Amino acid sequence: MSRPHSTVWLLARCFLPSWTVFLVGGTLPLLVIALVIVAISVNIGTILPDVLDGTLALTYTNNVVQPLVTVGSTPLVGNALVVVVWGTLGVALYTVTEFIVHGIRNLRESGHDVQFVDGKIIPHPLLGQTFGLLVWRLVIGMAAAAAVIWLQPLLSRAL
Q: Which H helix or E strand runs over 117?
């Protein structure tokens, strides 16, 4: 049996970072920077000729850039990317459909859950919260979609 903790201790514990946060927060930006450098160097050749001397730049081009260009130019990779894009769109469509169906079902269930008190029918007390939650999730989804549409030109110019 675990010992009970105070509310202050639980709140402090949930806001303290763990080693996982430091690990992910420290390595993820470095990984993203490395991937961006590799992606740019594949598009324009070697990006690091001024930073590296001739031998290291040649080794980088021959061992990193050239294999990526070779793999990227095969039809198999193009077909695989089309499959990945269609799969992602399918999962997104499934998620939206599941969200709508689940929300409607929850709304109907909370509408059918009634209480009889002194011969009066009292609707379920969480009916308003269920509707509010459905509207809140819909607004958040639309805001996320609007943010992606709004940021897309900026991201395309950045890349």
A: strand 114-117
